[in-house]
Sequence to fold (205 residues):
Amino acid sequence: MKRLMTVLVIAAFAGLMALPQPAAADVQFGIKVGGNMAKPTGVDAQDPLATVKSRVGFTGGIFLAFNFGKVVTIQWEALYTMKGATYVALDDSYTDKLYGDYIEIPLLLKIRIPLPVIQPFIFAGPSVGFKLSGKLETDGVPVDDLILKNNDYGAIFGAGFNLGRSFMIDVRYSLGLQKVLDTIEGGADIDYKNGVWAATIGIAF
Fold:
């Protein structure tokens, strides 16, 4: 499944680049920055003996938008994003912190409502992620028997609006579909997936 998602993203982007110039004439490059709030999903992401707190962090990167007429946009992005969570025991006996930083690459289909000034839009698409760093700590002490896998994949859904041609705001949810935790021995099947809410501001050139 992970290989299939990666191939689909690469193939779709390559196909866009191969489009004839008239069809891909309206191309925008831009940057976007914002904040996110990560909270994992999956059976093993929940702990009945602890309170799960979201990790609040930064997200930002670049995007390339291919506008087809006034309604349809295909948008490729490369974003740095912070994921993870904090587990605080109900009796305050321990605090676990799991941090993972990724480069996430979504390929989004965006549908716009072509109003004169403010253009609302919705979007969705697949994404693949590549781990930059990851760590697990218990009361500030590193734990080595659990590791984050090097790759992640999932789906992104969101909505927002354009202000004119150059300014945009969106809110999105990144639903992780890959179990991202493993043991060093590789024997455990841990149902722990990334889930992230994010809000970004973008500027197109």
User: Anything to note?
Assistant: Confidence is low (pLDDT under 50) at residues 4-9, 18-25. The two ends are 35 Å apart (CA to CA). The first strand starts at residue 26 and ends at 38.
